[in-house]
Amino acid sequence: MNHLRLLLALAATGVLALSASPRTKTTQSTLKNQSAKVEMLPWESNDSTSGIAPGDVTLRGYNKRASDAKETFFITNNTKHRISHVTLLLRYATLTGTMLHERTVTVPVRLRAGESQLVSIKSWDVQRLFYYYAGPKPRKMATPYKVAFRLTGYDIPVGK
Question: Can you give the C-alpha Rg of the chain in angstroms?
Fold first, then answer.
């Protein structure tokens, strides 16, 4: 009987010790907020004749590390229609505003109104010497840059 009491007392002590121990932190504090919008380039006067509005599409969560061969970001359809094949003018610049590169890309998407899609495109940085300033700083020597975009077009598919 004494053995049973001793065993119960040890078990109760163990439960109390476990419940009093500090919790293990399982979250990463180094993660960055990837929901930030990508800056839009100023709208030009000839853009207004195309029938599209600057806010029809937004880009969020842009990412490109120095070692990446691709750039990734979310495209969101802010129109009332299904859209596909979004065409963007992308302008890459140093943190002081010096332009590094500019290009037009067409991204194949299938988005209903209000939907977002994660897309990847081949990076402009073929030598892998640059990284997106809001992402993690690389261990190797690399130059930070910013990116801005202008929506230049999208398709509205007909039928299904």
Answer: 25
Q: Using pLDDT thresholds of 50, 70 and 90, give the confidence band for residue 32.
A: very low
Stated length of the chain: 160
As beta bridge partners, residue 146 has 93
DSSP symbol at 10? H
Amino acid at 61: G
Contact 108, 85 (CB under 8 A): yes
pTM: 0.73
- Is 121 strand, coil or helix? strand
What's the pLDDT tens digit per position in 108-120? Answer: 999 999 999 999 9
148: exposed, middle or buried (Cβ count in 10 Å: 0-12, 13-18, 19+): middle
CB 90 within 8 A of CB 75: no
Q: How far is CA 24 from CA 10, 21, 27, 99, in A?
A: 24, 9, 9, 46
User: What is the C-alpha to C-alpha distance for residues 62 and 14, in angstroms, rounded to an integer?
Assistant: 49
